[in-house]
Amino acid sequence: MTLGTGCAVSVPPRLMPGAAPLASLPRDLKVRVAGRIVNVAFEDYVAGSAISEVSPTGESTATIDRVLDVQTIVARTYALAHLGRHRADGFDVCDSTHCQLYEPARMGTSRFAPDVRRAIARTAGAVLTYGGRPIDAVFHADCGGHTASSDQVWGTPTLPYLPSEPDRVPALIHRSWVVTLTREQVRVALNAEARSAVGRTLTSIEARQTDDSDRISRVQVSGDRRVDLNGDDFRTLLNKSLGPKGLPSTRFRIQSNRTGFVMTGTGFGHGVGLCQLGAMARARRNAPVSAILASYFPGAVLTTPGGRIP
Ligand SMILES: [Zn+2]
Ligand SMILES: [Zn+2]
């Protein structure tokens, strides 16, 4: 199967206190797609986002159904919690990983389009809530074996349904990687922004702190200037310049060599919320949709605006 880029959020999500209590789902929302602001029926947006974020190639029909049920519920919840995120610019959500990927053309071209439409019908209106409000249903491609809590990754207040926990699925499904970067690649990426600029040289990258999930949460980079960075900021900065696979996650170890740095790690994406690889592994083992969601958003309640789903 192919996963999205570990989407939803390369910057701290808007927190739940900002989301309205769940009364009803909106009929439509304003999406900025390829630079244009368009009105999209809410469930069409959910379908377009779900199909952009997951492509369950090679899976059984039952697994495809469960995975798409999970992704449509997550996409719907995320959209609901983040309505008006771009209000200042005249729309609700953008089509990039800043919000959720949304490539509506895929509903016309993907072989999974009919499966997504059936998942939309099966999960009609279902969202995850906590305290009666839609949760911040963030997700990522691969947790590497342990999810991360939102406060440890983004420094935002603790959310009980986004804890740091081992992902109890066979470890082999999580992927490991080795990335070799030259000193120059990293220096250019850091110099792209004033707050992380090191100047004309880069001498070292040091992990100063790791969190409960074994992710690097503080990094110190030293060159002409010495700068302390949040670990996920460091990943985001590198990926802006090198692409999403520049530094796949912050769950890694650094070694320096003559020309640069060797990063050895696991996982892909920020690690908070639902792990798409883990969800897929659970779906293959016939775990019910509600159990898959409960594994990654403990304490969240699956409901529809009309009431609780059985
Ligand atoms: Zn956005
Ligand atoms: Zn995982």
What does the model show?
There is one protein chain. The protein has 310 residues and is an alpha+beta fold. It folds into 2 domains: 2-144 and 270-308, no CATH class; 176-266, no CATH class. It is built from 9 helices and 17 strands. It has a 4-stranded antiparallel sheet with strand order 7-6-16-17. Strands 3-2-5 form a 3-stranded mixed sheet. A 3-stranded antiparallel sheet has the order 9-14-13. The longest helix has 21 residues, at 61-81. The two termini are 30 Å apart.
Quick structural overview:
This protein is α+β, with helices and mostly antiparallel strands and 310 residues long. The chain has helices spanning 42-53, 61-81, 106-109, 113-122, 150-154, 183-191, 231-242, 276-284, 289-296, and strands at 2-3, 28-33, 36-41, 54-55, 93-94, 127-130, 133-134, 139-140, 176-182, 202-210, 216-223, 226-230, 252-256, 260-266, 274-275, 301-304, 307-308.
How are the elements arranged and paired?
Blueprint: E1 2-3, E2 28-33, E3 36-41, H1 42-53, E4 54-55, H2 61-81, E5 93-94, H3 106-109, H4 113-122, E6 127-130, E7 133-134, E8 139-140, H5 150-154, E9 176-182, H6 183-191, E10 202-210, E11 216-223, E12 226-230, H7 231-242, E13 252-256, E14 260-266, E15 274-275, H8 276-284, H9 289-296, E16 301-304, E17 307-308
Parallel strand pairs: 2-5, 8-15
Antiparallel strand pairs: 1-4, 2-3, 6-7, 6-16, 9-14, 10-11, 11-12, 13-14, 16-17
Helix pairs in contact: 1-2, 1-4, 2-4, 2-8, 2-9, 6-7
The structure holds zinc ion (2 copies).
